[in-house]
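Assemble and predict.
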Amino acid sequence: MALNTQKPQLDPQYLEKLQDYYSEHKVIPSYSVLAGLWGISAKSWVSECVKRFEEAGFLDWTPDKQLKPGARFFERKLADSTVQAGLPNPAISDGYDLITIDDWLVKIPSRTALVRVKGDSMIDAGIHEGDLLVVEVQPNANVGEIVVAIVDNEFTVKYLQKERNEFVLRPANKAYPVIRPKGRLEIFGVMAGLARRTR
Amino acid sequence: MALNTQKPQLDPQYLEKLQDYYSEHKVIPSYSVLAGLWGISAKSWVSECVKRFEEAGFLDWTPDKQLKPGARFFERKLADSTVQAGLPNPAISDGYDLITIDDWLVKIPSRTALVRVKGDSMIDAGIHEGDLLVVEVQPNANVGEIVVAIVDNEFTVKYLQKERNEFVLRPANKAYPVIRPKGRLEIFGVMAGLARRTR
DNA sequence: GTAGCTTCCGAACATTCGTTCTGTGTCAGC
DNA sequence: GCTGACACAGAACGAATGTTCGGAAGCTAC
């Protein structure tokens, strides 16, 4: 006997279609538009579905009672490589975790900044030009960490190292020289992750 | 004599308040809420201001005539990283503030999956073990693209290449061999980006 | 069978939406 | 002092919104 799941069913395709719509327009549509999007012809049924998505945490309401994305709206499925059984159909298998990329990358939102990477001086550390560096903003760092420092009023991403009791910035690319700052080394923050877009 | 600027004035504070509202709720509010937000007591005037923001490219309309963020909505005021003295406020990515990292990486949510990278066979492409690969799920790909293929019931990330009219999977690491699949090559999707956590 | 769910449709309805139109106060230019 | 912009307020109005309710199918269980 199957145990009572308690939760009413909700069509994952509905959520996907709404997510696609949102990612295109950056707005949640009205019930009548949603009806068209989902192939439903009764607003009353849309209302019911919305309620379920709300209870599941995918949708929410503004203080002004307008529909908005909920906490779990931006979750993505994480395909587990080991448990894959031949079938390329992702809809069926249950081997998915759901996570949001932002939550995974950013631990302390208030102290986190994003910096666009310029140049290829850190290529050997797998940091490419155009990457978005996730930086935890703090005024100091440990030797060996990848830091974002401010040199000549510009951001620089480098390894932090020590050389004869002085801090130096070492690139991860033999074509670039080690930077030995004259005065105090000004650190903007420490690398906590990165995001890259390739398509 | 000043030349006629043509463009009517529009209060930058209005835009900022709307951006703040949006970044909190991820939705554009109605005219009456906007009126409250802007300290205006006539919807007619809100309508006029919206028109101006629309003409300036900050707001736009969905095909269903709903108000939505325009192309320039996510622009940042130039708090440029290069001109910054001392402590910059989180000077982000070139003039643009992202809604979320997720939004930057994922274009079609319903066809996007995340795959955890195993091994270092793509290290020369800047793909490290443990990285989260953003994959657009599709059954075929172009030569030269980085694909996620299913080989022996496991996900493999490799370059897709052609060799004597046969598809092969080439790693980006000289220590690994080229994979020449026996039968049909089963492609799970194409790499669209990646996320890495280093801390 | 029939009883009880669940899924979905359709109409009715008050509320809210955005537009339009008129009116008021202020400032600039002549 | 008059005129014309411009920035806003306020009312009026049809259209669109989301909710409620009643009912028609379909499936399951007994």
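Helices of chain B lie at 12-25, 31-38, 43-56, 101-105.
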